[in-house]
Amino acid sequence: MEQVTLFLQQLLNGISLGSIYALIALGYTMVYGVLRFINFAHGDIYMLGAFSGFLVAPLVTRFIPLQQYDTFTPQNFFTIACGAGLVMLTSMAICAVIGVLIEKIAYRPLRNKPRLTVLITAIGVSLFIQNMTQYFFGAEPKPFPQLIPVHPIEGLGDLTILTTQAAIILSTIILLILLRFIVMRTKLGMAMRALSLNPMACSLMGVDIDVVISFTFALGSALAAAAGILVSLDSPSITPLMGNLPGIKAFVAAVLGGIGNIPGAAIGGLLIGVLETLVVGYLRPELRDAIAFAVLIVILLFKPTGLLGRVEREKV
Amino acid sequence: MSRARLILGVFLLFLLVLSLAVEGVLATTFAYYYDVLITIGINVILAVSLNLVNGYTGQFSLGHAGFMAVGAYAAASWSNHLDPVVAGVLGGMGNPAATNVCLVVSMLVGGLLAALAGLLVGIPSLRLRGDYLAIVTLGFGEIIRTAILNTDFLGAARGLSVRGNYTNLFWTYGLAGICVYTVLSLVNSTYGRGFLTVRDDEVAAEAMGINTTRYKVAAFVIAAFFAGIAGALYAHFKAFITPEGFNFFRSVDVVVMVILGGMGSTLGVILAAALLTILPEILRALAHTSFMPPAFQGLLENRLIAYSLLLIVLMLTRPEGLFGDPSAVRRRFIRTRPK
User: Taking a contact as any Cβ pair under 8 Å apart, which residues of chain A between 235 and 274 contact chain B?
Assistant: First the structure.
């Protein structure tokens, strides 16, 4: 019985970690869908999300004293949710603007250039963001302010779910539903899908491609920023290089799900998160970072299109 | 004897005389410049070898530091454990002949192990193209670093002290010369045209019956061999190595050299390697001059800020690099975006 509880506990931790990867992976997959290139700087947007939360939180807590709460109660739940939500939404907006600016300045002039040129530029942008953040904030880890009270949720028997983990999973579900709505039910979402299907026909139908691409970057960056804030709730120590590894793992998640496929990215993220937690829990903790790469190599060798991807033929 | 071989021979002879004449003075009186000079040599080996993969064969590897790490650690552990045996045959440690032989043997060990790693990485990953390959090579670089970080035998995170600092001007630049010679004669040979066809049009090359995967693996293994030798030289130069010395940013350094010089231009890449080794030194000196406001110091001392801007600006304005052939770049990356 104890074994089952332990397994469920690991699974839960994996899901909360996987939610973070899923949110980042969505950005990779959407940008790949419309532009067919890997936005190497996406992991750094996630980092910038955490840092903008770090800057915004003191402004919000001046009006809503979030630190004074030690536990969730039915009375303070709404206040805390509003305060933390406000921090998150502001950071998401900031990062959406940054994402759009990056696309405008660095990627748009290269729209019709070879893909490798854009990839190299993206690596440059990634390094630039990391090192500028390091220049302004310093390389040492910064403590992220407490937005919600951290304690195990009661009444779950032997399972321990922290409030932060619950917040991560809940917010991810809400964001995924919202994204699903935007992509499937709005005009811009339809334009996004059309663009990823056939850019030429799409612009012939009168879709303003620049607007759709900007919108895609804004959406992806906002999700990455949300992931940055959520992860900082759980492990409140942020550094300018924190985006590197999660960025790569989320990319692996996107490839696992089938790059360009939105539900695929979410599933891939959850799978990578759960796999990583299980490996750390049952095999060896030092394999934590190697597992994502191993997964990537295996998928690319046996099923390069991922779980839900389409086959794309190379035309001469 | 072909002309290229003649040039190489004259270069090596000249180098031998030069290093015999000035090595002692340089290493003791001008230690700082000697340091920079050796680093330039090591970077030239790294950049010219990576250019075979990224420039001539048109692949995009982001894991060169990983192969350098394999070479460095292999050479270091070989020297630490087996040098007394090798030197014993040649009259004991400290004898100049023994020192040189020890260096050559450990370089060979480092180079061959790195080549083996290149083969292991190359066979599965080189079926991939473009950005996928970049990510997988990045992954392999990180896996190698993580593996060293968790191996107690190699010092793990503490780093590894290396017996003897054998590296000298002659061997550094001698190997740089051999590396340049190998890459150039390879690319200019009948066999080597295969590398260029893979770069120029992979689909057409395959249709002409060229085994593109084999060429890619060959380029990878040769590049890894020289990266391993560069790693061995580095280990015997610094006498102390840590896994952090071979992280992703070290790979980026080499990639920036190749891109600045011009992918597929050996001369350009050599110049870029020298330039980008000296540049951080100049920036650092500039940061500490009296007229520089303190706010700019951090900006100038962080080479990656300059490098990242360099990458972005180069790609926006001159993607073929300083000395590259613009037409080669235009032909080279196949656009797979549906039209």
Answer: 244, 248, 251, 255
- Return mean pLDDT, chain B: 85
Contact B169, A157 (CB under 8 A): no
User: Which residue in A38, A120, A200 is closest to B259 by CB distance?
Assistant: A120
What would the DSSP string read from start to end of A29-82? HHHHHHH-S--TTHHHHHHHHHHHHHHHHHHHHHHS-GGG--S--TTTHHHHHH
Euclidean distance between CA atoms A250 and B130, whole angstroms: 19
Which chain A residues touch B134 with a CB distance below 8 Å? 119
User: How far is the C-alpha of A199 from the C-alpha of A112, rounded, in Å?
Assistant: 12
Among residues A173, A199, A171, A154, the alpha carbon closest in space to that of A49 is found at A171
For residue range B218-272, what is the model confidence (pLDDT) as tens digits?
999 999 999 999 999 999 999 899 998 898 889 988 998 998 888 888 899 999 9
Tell me the chain B residues in contact with residue A304 when contact means C-beta distances shorter than 8 Å: 128, 132
- Strands (E) across chain A are located at 142-143, 237-238
Task: Enumerate long-range contacts of A180-186, CB under 8 Å, 24 or more apart.
Answer: A180/A262, A182/A219, A183/A262
Domain ranges in chain B? Answer: 2-248
- The stretch B49-73 carries a mean pLDDT of 91
- Within the 54-93 window of chain A, which residues sit less than 8 Å (CB to CB) from chain B? none
Q: CA of B176, closest CA in chain A: separation in Å?
A: 26
CA distance to partner chain B, nearest, from residue A293 (Å): 6
Residues of chain B in contact with residue A316, where contact means CB-CB under 8 angstroms, are 203-204
Q: Which of B134, B116, B93 is CA-nearest to residue B222? A: B116
φ/ψ of residue B241, rounded to 5: -125, 145
Smallest Cα–Cα separation from B66: which of B139, B127, B132, B125? Answer: B139
Which pLDDT score, from 0 to 100, does residue B50 have? 94
Which residue spans within A144-283 are E strands per DSSP?
237-238
Does A275 score more than 90 pLDDT?
Answer: yes
Set of chain B residues whose Cβ sits within 8 Å of the Cβ of A296? 135-136, 139
DSSP B162: -
Q: How many CB atoms lie within 10 A of CB A257?
A: 30
Which residues in chain A (151-180) have CB-CB distances under 8 A to chain B? none
pLDDT: which is higher, B306 or A182: A182
Query: For residue A170, what pLDDT is reported?
Result: 93
Is pLDDT of B85 > 60?
Answer: yes
Cα A280 from Cα A291, distance rounded (Å): 10
Reduced to 3 states, what is the DSSP secondary structure of residue B190?
coil
Look up residue A283 and give its DSSP letter: S
Q: Does A114 sit within 8 Å of B335, measured CB to CB?
A: yes
Distances (CA, A) of A167 to A5, A159, A172, A291, B90: 21, 16, 8, 26, 69
Nearest CA in chain A to B126: A301
- Could you tell me if B120 and B105 are in contact, meaning their C-beta atoms sit under 8 angstroms apart? no
* pTM for the structure as a whole: 0.86
Q: Pick the more confident residue, B298 or B118.
A: B118
Write b or e for each residue in B20-34: b if 16 or more Cβ atoms lie within 10 A of its Cβ, otherwise e. eeeeeebbeeeeeeb
Q: Do B305 and A132 touch (CB under 8 A)?
A: yes
Interface test with B, best of A31, A44, A107, A131 (most B CBs within 10 A): A131
Subunit contact A131:B302, Cβ cutoff 8 A? yes
- CA–CA separation, A230 vs A301, rounded Å? 33
CB atoms within 10 A of CB A118: 25
Q: Which residues of A touch B124 (CB under 8 A)?
A: 297, 301
